[in-house]
């Protein structure tokens, strides 16, 4: 039997969490905020059961109210698995960040296991003065196994206008060339880091390569995108962590980016 579950978070100023609602396999736990201010909140997503399976429909909704700061991370990777249902699983993430608010969305890796079929959508609505650090990481297959089918879409709107919209497809049924030299080049881990803050539109960083398998690109708006591939999850995380440290260092001369 397919599963339906939606977990909800609302963060308010002063470190308050007026809504922290777990559901099904999505267990939410308030954890100690590290590296932030006394009014920051941190929530960790803990997987309560194996999910998503084929046919499941899971969702997480997070609202960061005006002036609030929230970090959301995870206790472990999410593993997409095949299920009894023939239809794909769906995992939707809906994020809203208010005026002068900040959200650090830092989940663990999403692993696409052999035979799985997952559609994942992340939709972000930012107020004009909102700040965002968002990391996405996908690992295509567990150790020494081929990947399942994975389609992800990330859409970010700021002040009601589009800032970023990208869809990626991997595995059986994906358009040809996804595992070729022009895309993954034999790598099994792929990820992106999106940083949005005031000031980056007026003094954007220059586009450039970060090592051999990552690239930094300023967006047409107040944002910076880092896209990377790596042989494995550990290598990908190292590249994205280094990229975030670089973006923060360069941003200090333009605008303060809060620590995660």
TrEMBL record:
Subunit composition and interactions: UreD, UreF and UreG form a complex that acts as a GTP-hydrolysis-dependent molecular chaperone, activating the urease apoprotein by helping to assemble the nickel containing metallocenter of UreC. The UreE protein probably delivers the nickel.
The keyword Transferase is assigned to this record: no
Lineage, uppermost ranks: Bacteria, Bacillati, Actinomycetota, Actinomycetes, Kitasatosporales
A GO term for molecular function: nickel cation binding
Name of this protein: Urease accessory protein UreD
Family the entry assigns: Belongs to the UreD family.
Subcellular location: Cytoplasm
Alphabetically ordered keywords of this record: Chaperone, Cytoplasm, Nickel insertion
Function: Required for maturation of urease via the functional incorporation of the urease nickel metallocenter.
GO cellular component terms listed in the entry, alphabetical order: cytoplasm
Pfam annotation, one family: UreD
Superkingdom field: Bacteria
